[in-house]
Amino acid sequence: VQLVESGGGLVQPGGSLRLSCAASGFTFSRSTMIWARQAPGKGLEWVSKIYNDGSTYYGDSVKGRFTISRDNAKNWVYLQMNSLKPEDTAVYYCVIGRLGGSRGKGTQVTVSS
What's the pLDDT at 34? Predict the structure, then answer.
């Protein structure tokens, strides 16, 4: 199993970023995929989930600002993040199936002026 996140960076409040996760080594098209994040000094927080049928769910803190999507043909999952806030600063992880599932090394997102 391999998950490789990319697309993080430094952005000003109100800005946007698009995170990507390349997946391999498992049956991606049948898997639920999760984006989770971990802020400094805090635990892993569920951000968004997408099922294999494309149905999506979001945490209350990101609802209306983030959009999760997937490409089952290419084994990619994405997280479009708009209207970013300083409290969105965290390392973002792509996770298989459930919050404690296999995950990549993460990509740092820093929202600061």
Answer: 97
Burial class (CB in 10 A: 0-12, 13-18, 19+), 95: buried
Closest CA to 49 of 40, 109, 62, 16: 62
Q: What are phi and psi of 87, to 5 degrees?
A: -70, -5
In this prediction, residue 99 carries a pLDDT of: 83
The maximal CA–CA distance of the chain, rounded, in angstroms, is 40
Instruction: Give CA torsion, residues 101, 70, 7, 98, to 10 deg.
Output: -10
- The pLDDT, as a whole number, for residue 92 is 98
Taking the C-alpha atoms of residue 72 and residue 58, their distance in angstroms, rounded to an integer, is 20
- Please check whether residue 35 is in contact with residue 47, taking contact to mean a CB–CB distance below 8 angstroms: yes
Any idea what DSSP says for residue 10? E
State the pairing for strand pair 17-24/2-6: antiparallel
